[in-house]
């Protein structure tokens, strides 16, 4: 018993009530990905005062832009636990986190607002943490759900965790060079504004049930937990709620407590459906640590909805994924390009980082005579695609979009074909059915046109295209250089009818 007692540290006093952790865990550095030229690992500080550890860092040089005011102006602020966060955010360096449970192999459009709000914190000179719910995903968040989530096995969770970690690090790494505070040339974040990806399984795997119930559970009131909106809705449903799901809010609350004590995180952000889980964390910090004044804050943003109240982020084919392996940048771009006029200005405010002056001017332009349709949608699609997929992804999307434009003469490559493949009919033919075959014959065998006479007539009218280039000669035959990357070619009849020919 004495050896067992010596093998752990009980961190619990009237001033700082922490948790049981083995000494070995105190020496262990948490595994995370850090986007910074000089990666910073913060070791687990087992014996440091929680209140001192999580205190804000004051900037003696100047006041920074208020991230809270920016979010509010753009329609990204739903609720806040204390209005003091407004002033604190202008004079202190905050550390904000947002949680992402790995319930799928990629994040989707519904998760994008969390990344955008974290990016706003970064752009205002604060620090950001993305917390992967490797532990909480095993429980399943009941917020906004009418049914309990299916259980995921360990291999699936590991694969999903890697997938969404890649998405988050890719997006915030590409966008880590913007700062609204005008440091230096105005284009670079200061060295302290790094981005960290963590996994809550790193600490939950060490948690012992009896210790958790004694040190944390005793501060949770069942009445308060029952009063959470997510709980009430599920209890009123036919399916009800399992005890496992019921405890989710306490687990998420403890995550905030842990991050506050050990990583200096003092702001948790999330969608409006996360309000109950977020306040569970601020309440735990208040009750267990008994700090003076406001030291931990919660902030929520609205859910992404269309003007008709339906959820924005779903298409006929399913979720709008942020991973290019699941949804091409072209398809992603097209989704935003098709946003209705009624939604486009609001989405420009919440989904892009464009100046409000430019957005206001676009809104005025939409109401002027002679407005070119979809100008605002094009700006929205370009900016969101650039944020999620970077310059290469945007160029790929624009190239594929141009390739499908009526009468386009875009030079095609394999990536462009991949981008448009889902929107253009295709056929597969053997190489001997394509090479040295007349364009007239191929137009029929590919299904582009019904007859050779129709193909000849269209060619004479200047409406038959090969790889977006107009063909004038009736004797034109397919040559090796006509086949893009030795794999495909594109035939067009007129300005709209196209077919992709795949060479097998």
Automatic annotation (TrEMBL):
Catalyzes the attachment of tyrosine to tRNA(Tyr) in a two-step reaction: tyrosine is first activated by ATP to form Tyr-AMP and then transferred to the acceptor end of tRNA(Tyr). HAMAP family: Tyr_tRNA_synth_type1. Keywords: Aminoacyl-tRNA synthetase, ATP-binding, Ligase, Mitochondrion, Nucleotide-binding, Protein biosynthesis, RNA-binding, Transit peptide. GO terms for molecular function: ATP binding; RNA binding; tyrosine-tRNA ligase activity. It holds the Pfam family SYY_C-terminal. Residues 438-495 form the RNA-binding S4 domain. It is an enzyme of class 6 (ligase). Its EC number is 6.1.1.1. It catalyses: tRNA(Tyr) + L-tyrosine + ATP = L-tyrosyl-tRNA(Tyr) + AMP + diphosphate + H(+). This is Tyrosine--tRNA ligase. The lineage of its organism: Eukaryota, Viridiplantae, Streptophyta, Embryophyta, Tracheophyta. Belongs to the class-I aminoacyl-tRNA synthetase family. It is found in: Mitochondrion. GO terms for biological process: post-embryonic development; reproductive structure development; tyrosyl-tRNA aminoacylation. SMART domains: S4. GO terms for cellular component: chloroplast stroma; cytosol; mitochondrion.
């Amino acid at each position: 018993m004495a050896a067992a007692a010596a093998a752990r540290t009980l961190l619990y006093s009237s001033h700082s009530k922490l948790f049981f952790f083995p000494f070995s865990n105190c020496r262990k550095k948490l595994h995370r990905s850090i986007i910074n030229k000089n990666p910073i690992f913060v070791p687990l500080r087992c014996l440091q005062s929680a209140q001192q550890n999580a205190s804000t860092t004051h900037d003696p040089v100047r006041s920074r832009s208020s991230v809270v005011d920016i979010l509010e102006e753009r329609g990204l602020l739903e609720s806040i636990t204390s209005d003091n966060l407004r002033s604190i955010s202008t004079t202190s360096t905050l550390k904000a986190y947002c949680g992402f449970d790995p319930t799928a192999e990629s994040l989707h459009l519904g998760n994008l607002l969390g990344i955008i709000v974290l990016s706003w914190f970064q752009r205002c000179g604060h620090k950001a943490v993305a917390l992967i719910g490797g532990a909480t995903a095993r429980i399943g968040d009941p917020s906004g759900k009418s049914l309990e989530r299916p259980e995921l096995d360990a291999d699936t969770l590991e694969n999903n965790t890697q997938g969404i970690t890649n998405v988050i690090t890719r997006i915030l790494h590409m966008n880590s060079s913007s700062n609204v505070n005008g440091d230096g040339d105005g284009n670079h974040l200061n060295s302290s504004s790094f981005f960290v990806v963590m996994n809550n399984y790193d600490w939950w795997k060490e948690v012992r049930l009896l210790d958790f119930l004694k040190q944390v559970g005793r501060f949770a009131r069942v009445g308060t937990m029952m009063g959470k909106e997510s709980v009430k809705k599920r209890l009123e449903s036919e399916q009800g709620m399992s005890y496992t799901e019921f405890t989710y809010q306490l687990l998420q609350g403890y995550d905030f407590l842990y991050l506050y004590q050990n990583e200096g995180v003092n702001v948790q952000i999330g969608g409006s459906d996360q309000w109950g889980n977020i306040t569970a964390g601020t309440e735990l910090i208040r009750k267990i640590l008994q700090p003076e004044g406001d030291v931990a804050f919660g902030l929520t943003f609205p859910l992404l909805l269309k003007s008709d109240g339906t959820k924005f982020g779903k298409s006929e084919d399913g979720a709008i994924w942020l991973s290019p392996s699941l949804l091409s940048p072209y398809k992603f771009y097209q989704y935003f390009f098709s946003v209705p006029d009624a939604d486009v200005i609001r989405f420009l405010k919440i989904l892009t980082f464009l100046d409000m002056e430019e957005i206001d001017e676009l809104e005025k332009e939409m109401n002027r005579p002679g407005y070119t349709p979809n100008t605002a949608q094009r700006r929205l699609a370009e900016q969101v695609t650039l944020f999620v997929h970077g310059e290469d992804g945007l160029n790929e999307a624009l190239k594929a979009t141009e390739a499908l434009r009526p009468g386009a003469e875009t030079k095609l490559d394999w990536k462009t074909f991949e981008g448009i493949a889902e929107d253009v009919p295709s056929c597969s033919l053997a190489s001997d059915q394509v090479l040295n075959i007349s364009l007239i014959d191929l137009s029929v065998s590919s299904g582009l046109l019904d007859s050779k006479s129709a193909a000849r007539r269209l060619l004479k009218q200047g409406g038959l295209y090969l790889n977006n280039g107009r063909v004038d000669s009736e004797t034109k035959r397919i040559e090796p250089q006509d086949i893009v990357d030795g794999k495909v070619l594109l035939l067009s009849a007129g300005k709209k009818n196209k077919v992709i020919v795949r060479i097998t």
